[in-house]
Specification:
The complex is a heterodimer of chains A (about 170) and B (about 110).
Chain A (H helix, E strand, L loop, with lengths): L2 H24 L3 H21 L3 H25 L14 H24 L13 H10 L2 H22 L9
Chain B lengths: L3 H21 L3 H25 L10 H31 L13
Helix pairs in contact in B: 1-2, 2-3
Classes of the chains: A mainly alpha (about 170), B mainly alpha (about 110).
Chain lengths: ~170, ~110
């Protein structure tokens, strides 16, 4: 990959990501925010490919954009009030001022730290990561790998239990 | 030009936008979207450091991507449980406006 293509791809993807994130922040309609979050996640996936994390890029598209976002859209439609406009809430101005202020302060702090730290860098090389990830997951990180499956089981059972309606005992 | 700092700046911007989204929004699901933005910023940090910073031993190569994978899986589990809680809150309080969720006793 040549240098200019890398820079061009990075610029386009970062515009997509930041545009999507600002869309999530500023759109009044909830569904518009969800669509803009999708663009942000797709841009993140492209950025992972630039960082030689190809498996993670596809996993991001499958799990995040294809699973979590769809789950959120389900949640949006299940909690919509059909008699009123719940997809658009009007927030108070003070909320916005505090939120944007906090965001600016955080970003300026982090940007100052990032630009002033002398990072020790290495020469980058791009290689496929699937084989290495497979090796690591089954040799060095086998315990977190098994534990995550237990966590997923608990999350599944827990969320089903949470939304289960109570059955009336009309007949025993 | 595309060094480590540019990726870290994007992650910092995503984190700040996520926090602003959580603080300034009234709908719970908007706030959950802000949380997802923060997760994405963390994963980008891990993957960028894994790509650019030399490791102590070769056994740690691509460990950042393993962490990123675990974060993505945990974010999925958290989103499922969080949306189940949102449905419960909607059932009890009748709306997903955080201004109206102000009673502790059910």
């Amino acid at each position: 990959m040549s240098e200019t293509f890398y820079n061009l791809a990075f610029s386009v993807l970062s515009l997509l990501i930041l545009g999507g994130a600002l869309g999530v922040l500023f759109f009044k309609n909830l569904l518009h925010s969800a669509v803009s979050l999708f663009f942000c996640l797709a841009g993140m996936s492209g950025l992972y490919i630039l960082l030689s994390a190809d498996f993670l890029a596809v996993a991001q598209l499958l799990i995040y954009a294809g699973g979590i976002l769809v789950l959120m859209i389900f949640g949006i439609f299940l909690t919509a009030n059909i008699y009123g406009k719940t997809h658009e809430f009007k927030e108070r101005k003070s909320f916005w001022l505090v939120g944007l202020g906090v965001g600016f302060v955080l970003f300026s702090l982090l940007a100052a730290i990032i630009s002033k730290t002398p990072w020790a860098l290495q020469t980058v090389k791009h290689e496929s990561s699937v084989e290495h990830l497979g090796n690591l997951l089954l040799s060095k990180y086998i315990l977190p790998f098994e534990l995550i499956s237990v966590v997923l089981l608990f999350a599944m059972v827990g969320s089903v239990l949470l939304v289960k309606k109570e059955m009336e005992d009309t007949e025993s | 030009m595309m060094g480590l700092t540019s990726f870290l700046m994007i992650a910092a911007a995503l984190f700040a936008i996520g926090v602003a989204c959580i603080v300034s929004r009234k709908n719970i699901i908007h706030m959950l979207m802000g949380v997802e933005l923060i997760f994405n910023a963390a994963v980008l940090n891990f993957v960028a450091f894994d790509h650019f910073v030399p490791k102590v031993s070769t056994a740690l190569h691509f460990s950042g991507q393993v962490f990123g994978l675990f974060i993505i899986v945990l974010a999925a589990a958290e989103a499922a449980v969080a949306l189940a809680l949102v449905l419960c809150v909607n059932r009890v309080f009748g709306s997903v406006d955080v201004g109206q969720i102000n009673k502790m006793k059910g």
